[in-house]
Amino acid sequence: MDNDLQIGEKIRKQRIKANLTQEKLAEYSDLSINFISKLERGQKKNISILKLNAICRALEISISELLQEESNISLAHLTPSSLQLIHELQTLDRPDCESISQHILLLLDDFKMIYR
């Protein structure tokens, strides 16, 4: 699947999640309905960062939120401490993140053996 279609699909998913019609998204982003429609169908091959930003503002999300890869992990059920742990790991460089993650996993294994 090419990136143009992926961006359009992601915009469509976010639009639906925000309970917006294409018409409302077009109005809120000051773009044409035709542009939004073609973008969502992957028929629009070029989008400027300004237009992408306008769409994201209308959807009340950041560009990075729109473009991030979808994950099979649902964050909705995580506790505040779990979310903070994920955030802290994301601030580390890759080797440190891996090292700390390995230690945490070992602690979890020990916890499971002792308390289950």
From TrEMBL:
InterPro entries: Cro/C1-type_HTH, Lambda_DNA-bd_dom_sf, TransReg_Diox_bact_type. Residues 11-66 form the HTH cro/C1-type domain. The keyword DNA-binding applies. Keywords: DNA-binding. CDD domains: HTH_XRE. The keyword Membrane does not apply. One of its GO terms (cellular component) is cytosol. GO terms for molecular function: DNA binding; DNA-binding transcription factor activity. SMART domains: HTH_XRE. Pfam families: HTH_3. This is XRE family transcriptional regulator. It comes from the Bacteria.
